[in-house]
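Reposting from the mailing list since nobody answered there.

I have sequence plus structure tokens for a pair of proteins and want to know whether others read the tokens the same way I do. The first protein:
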Amino acid sequence: MSASGTVGKVKSAAEVVQGIPSGAHIALGGFAIARNVIAVVHELIRQQKRDLTISQGVVGLDTDLLVGAGLVKHLIMGGGSLDRFGPVPCVNRARETKSLVCEDYTSLSMCFRYLAGALGLSFIPIKSLIASEVLERLEAGAGAGDVQRMKCPFTGEEYVALRALTPDVSLVHVQVADREGNCQIDGPRWENEEQAKAGRRLIVVAEEIVSTEYIQRSPERTIIPGHRVEAVIHQPFGAVPTAVFRRYDYDAEHLRLYVEHAQEPKRYQEYLKKFVFDCRDHSEYLEKLGGAKRMEQLKADPVLGY
């Protein structure tokens, strides 16, 4: 129970994923190898939630894991990589073999699509895609039904109308939340706020659970308000091996290991078996990465934030 007498929203990753059906459209927060919802992605793989549509501003390790596990049929993205560790190998392989449908936007236009959903609009007009190859490819491919050239009814100026993105479930990793889902995000937010508010359901993964009183001391820092949140997963180091600003750095050793395995489908399956299927939960996974000693090594410098 919270201080107000209402039931809190804290659940385990396994409980949350049980309520996500196969075929759902899931929006993933984070950016490349920062604030990925790894704990939930591993659980989606364990529970074999299939035929997913995944949308993400800049795809990273979390999306690559799901695609490599064969669970994604449709990908809506604004670019992506594993940063200094190279491209997203499973996503690129799936694109080459045409085993999934891809819609390629810019990260800015993805943000606008989420913004439209967050505002309750069916579309939003922008100018940034005009005269670009990105728009031409969308019009000629899978995105044809989601983009439309239009003229302003007031000035006659040319715009591109983007269909709103309203994911079935939005998943966002945050540094701090209370039991009612009021969240603070330190550092870059990218399109995560718009993405969170566009989702029909919103689930957050929090490094730390704090009191509502603590949240209320700095109300301007509440990026996601609790009334929009369905569930809070309390999972310290829940984004490892990706980074969380002011909490921990990315695990370079493990990311190199991942890339090495992801180059070949057979070796990738070996990776999934060892680090996902053979782990009952995220705690067992962290133990395989070196446990408390390794997590201590990854902790961020309190001044620099990484």
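The second protein, same order (residues first, tokens after):
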Amino acid sequence: MKDELISLANKVVSEAIKYGFEEAAAKVSVLKETMVKIANSEPSVIQDWDNTFITLYMSRDKKIVVSSIHSIKPESISQVISKVAKGVENIKPSILYAPLPEPQRVTSLSGTVDKKILEAMDEPSNIAETIIEVAHRERIDSIAGMFSLRYSEKALVTSKGAELYEEASMIETYIRAFAGDGSGQWALGSRTLDLRSIEDMARIASKYAVESKNSVEIEPGEYDIILSPMVAGNLLNYVARMSSAYYILMGVSIFMKNRPGDIVASSKLTIIDAPRDKSLPGSTAFDDEGLETYNKPIIEKGVLRNILHNTKTASKMGAKSTANAGWIAPSPWALKVESGDYTLDEMIGEVKNGLLVTNNWYTRLQNYIEGVFSTITRDALFLIKDGEIVKPVKKLRIADTFPKFLHNIYALTKESYPIKWWEVETATQLPYILVRNVKTSKHTV
């Protein structure tokens, strides 16, 4: 469909120019998805989607409008653009306006489509059976969760002459296992269908469910905490998003007072924006302005290396685009956290008084500039004493600050995991992470 999608995007751009806009960019996206929900250890719902939609950027007199069109009928496209054109006079010029960039050569990513995912979309029951069978090798009661198989295409055309296309596949899945009063959860996000990784996901969730039975209350306080990739992925997603120049300009980032070159974390931590890692969902050869993407450290060995820019924030801050557009807000594409030197058992052995946190939810920021946050542990939570897990415990609230959290990272495991689900929106490959002296309190949810 490459030619058809590029042709459609060109027509949308031409229509915007016809209605008096000076610049326009159109991204036409096609998403085919098969999702299977699992409840009580059985497939409960199978849903299929096949959608085509258009997102459109237009500017006139430095006024910026971003709109979406959910119909590809010419009359619908014309109607939306006409309506926007009539209302643009009431919009103030944007303080972030910068012209769309000139087109450049973009090296495409190869191997982003796994035929096994396309085949599985026609018969997803085999994956469901695998997840359920592996999970029940442990002595659990039941599992719930979902897996989603997707094939996507996108074409980007700009009025400056860029014409780009790419396609990709992905699987996103998680399960939550239950054993008595114990529960465990794990997730996976990948461009390829690997049954061994899916089995590992089911095994980890069920293992944590069994081990967390008969949990007891403990007193909150300051603990050394080992964060599973599920939890670390959630928290580091927040950190990575706050490296966006847009959020820095809007005053909702812990990096407002920092510049590249500043020490912002432990030397153990390296976070990379990895749009060209074809194994991770979110990877892409080009950004929404048509610039070629590249891998870059956000934090490298504790040092802030890059603020993420599109051409607009870059113009405002006297920098260069990092090819992370977002027509309005630049953002990371996919994240990799460099691994460390420990096994998980060795990491547990480093902890005298601490916790192993396997899952979390309800992460909230009370102060974006200072990075004051809280999150509630969920599912399996374990108390560690003198280098050994001694018992499962009931949930607590982690309540601390991101700057302290980043500086107190002490160790990372060798093995890492590709995590993506609704609490880790940007796909992230990362290990278990040990953070010293983290504050906890009683939960209220």
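Reply #1 (J.P.):
I read it the same way you do. Residues 2-18 form the longest helix (17 residues).
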